[in-house]
Amino acid sequence: MSADAPTFLGMPPFPEAAHEALGNEQLRHNLRRATGTIRDKRAQVIGELDDWEGLRTRAALIKDTALHDLDRHLVELEEQLVARGVTVHWARTAEEACMIVGDIAQSHDVDEVVKVKSMATQEIELNEALQARGIAAWETDLAELIVQLGHDLPSHILVPAIHRNRTEIRDIFRAEMGQVGRAAPEDLTDDPAQLAEASRLHLREKFLRARMAVSGANFAVAETGTLVVVESEGNGRMCLTLPEVLVSVVGIEKVVPTWDDLDVFLQLLPRSSTGERMNPYTSTWSGVTEGDGPQECHVVLLDNGRTRALADEVGRQALRCIRCSACLNICPVYERTGGHAYGSVYPGPIGAILNPLLKGVGHDEQVDSLPFASSLCGACYEVCPVKIDIPTVLVDLRAQVVDAHREDRRPHAEAAAMRAGAWAMGSSRRMALGQRASGLAGAVLGRVSRRANASGRQVLGWLPSPGSAWTRTRDLPVPPTESFRRWWKRTR
Amino acid sequence: MRVALMATCLGDTMFPDVAKATVTVLERLGVDVDFPEAQTCCGQPMINTGYLDEAEPVVRVYHRAFADHDAVVLPSGSCAGSVRHQHEIVARRSGDAGLVATVERQAHRAYELSEFLVDVLGVTDVGASFPHTVAYHPTCHSLRMLGVGDRPRRLLEAVRGLELVDLPGERECCGFGGTFALKNAEVSSAMGQDKADSVIASEAEVLVAGDSSCLMQIGGVLSRQRVGVRTMHLAQVLAAQEESA
Q1: Touching check for A444 and chain B: CB below 8 Å?
Q2: Average pLDDT of span B215-237
Q3: How far is A480 from chain B (nearest CA, A)?
Q4: Could you state, in order of their start, the residue ranges of all structural domains in chain A?
Q5: Pairing with B33, which of A372, A390, A433, A484 sits 20 to 30 Å away (CA)?
């Protein structure tokens, strides 16, 4: 759309990126309110079901089984799609997928497409690729529209403009809508109804004009070659029915074998994502229907790292993900940093595992920092509707990152510290010696320290680096002069 | 039944009073507590930072030290969780079938303190008295990795004189997270700050939890801001026999 559309490329590692976000009080306030609201709604609608746990288990099993025989299901999906008049394309990489979509657009001589909100097309940066070929891609989901008009990046999977408040949105609409289509009214206020009306009028023009639409799919049912889009605003329904040409970019992990399987996910997804029993619009289409809807349908089946993730024994469970965002909304880290700090369209706990799994570790500092962007509290695992054990995958990916750097030429201070720690803990005699040293230090520091905590224990308020990372915001108790070990020996 | 205390490296080195309190409680309930001196650490600091090779000798030390015990009591949900759920990962990676078998045999003998008291000894009233207002922070690993549920709360409710008050947002992480506290110090601090704020809002005199590491985080923030709320380990409250004033 615009020449200055930003990209996640070149984002700094997580701790650095988080630094900026943490300084933004408004962002933290917006995030806390928004995630808190969705979290409460989710808890309420899940509480209504008799057997939520059973449903989660079934969903995980369906996905695991489907992924286990992915090759078979994909071929079945392709056969069914082709039989229903769909042209199926296979894309190994983001570049291939973008090329395919661009070629289709060019073959129809269109200079614009309307888009249904889709993570896969965000992931492959399709809008930027189309723009480079002179084709404008208009986002039609309200939040994606806000992000696009604001020359901004998405910060949440479900609500990509969660970092914006309505005053900011009004300003963006006023300044930007007129540049790319129908302008917002001069007297637009930040009243949600007015904002919605402005976007409705702005978008309607594009829906009615566009000859080609691009979508993703939440699910692809193999047995009937049916694609499914689950949405809230009806913009998706417009895109899927009005234009002549429809191209859907679908990650290969989106396949579910049967409609019975789909039934399980349609119960899980809206409850986990928007906290609704049912989402307002569920569109399903199985190929081309003569005289009704798009008369030319394409499906681009996208790998882009998914087979790499599938080969990862521990991490492959991440491919069960149905992009609901429940893990983002519960995550204490995400709540404080927002999504941009993760440097990807997939932020939060799922992003912390999905990005390294799709891209591989050991060659990009930013990707390598993601598995460490978690306190391992496990809240994400608890809410995940498909039971992805995110903490376990995080720990496994941490090990992969460490292993990938074992042969680095420049020795890493952390690795040296871990080796030293392991050596000390490798024998109780060595550990006891270490405790004697910390006890002596404690005896000295106890005299130097001028401060005690509420329990009357002396504390340290300053330590040299790397201890300063602790003491910048937190006191540390002075080590006791006698370890438990010594006390036991002395008294027993 | 042979019962051992695993003091944990942090407890042994930095918080010996917590280990002593654990001994006090167990002995008061008639348990003959052993402290195998060969013990060191559960290996969690290395495991959770991704240093699995480095963790292996530490995991071996654990299983040698506690080979002859029927139950190992740990005053830490996080360390008990590591023994029960993570040692297996380290053992498998080592390729040593003997270590895998040992870990499989022994992992479930590790009990977090409240689990041991409630499930093994069948006790909720441990004969403690502690006439103070207390807020309880359920630590993430005891809550989600072990599933200790309301056991700590039941133990606290049976303490004479103790008034248990609600901690707003109690299930939210304190932000410690092991090396996360250093590698992502700013996020960790922001989480710690919010937890400290809810401790203050609870108006409790004492904040209690089952993990010294989390208490070090929350207590570190409270102390820095000179908030007069004490932090105490669950074991210390259960060991207390204070007369009311």
Answers
A1: no
A2: 97
A3: 6
A4: 14-306, 435-491
A5: A433
